[in-house]
Amino acid sequence: MKTLGVLGLSNKGTYTGQHLDFGLGIADPRRYESPPIWRQVPGAWASNVVSGDPACEKGYVNLAQELVREGADAITCDCGFTVRYQQAIAAAVSVPVSTSSLLLLPTLLAHVPAGRKIAVLPADSRCLDAGIMEALGVTEPSRLVIEGLEGTATYNYMWAEKGNIHVNEVLADIDDIIARIRKHENVAAILCECTIFSRVSARIRRATGLPVYDAANNAALLMVAAAER
Fold this sequence. Notes:
The protein is α/β, with parallel strands linked by helices.
């Protein structure tokens, strides 16, 4: 069986409570045939990875190589903003690497008519900058609707080195983003950058009636295509 390697942030958090609309994280073994190998990258925090600190790149590269030695057949990350390190990680290992669901964006734009838009849901919309768009090959940013988590309880939880949050608070923040998306016209699909959205994508899909793509979809595509070593 094939094994996914997941490069994680150093933040440690706990979700309290339960809700049917709050599902599994991308490193949860129940998502895969074989339990993934999940390791935290030393010094990689939500605050410096999302903002694009180049000093984090070496840690991701080194740990990716370690995951391959431990048996990973493909590698992803638990923060979509690690797309900035995509080329460096991919060049350093011999297995497929897809750091972020943002890598799906050019394909999704091609899936929908030119007059339609993709809603992108990042952890922090302020950090989804021109450099990332250029690296992705996105040349029409006007076709994007960007709604982030900044200013929410969920954002504060993710930025804490050690935090906890009740799942109902997360769902309330998600419902607020859903309401914001509904105010935009011509949205054809939704792409979730932040991996927390993979826990609630079914709720977003049901509430909007739109296709929703997330980090779990990205990881599943990676694993379907990866060869077993």
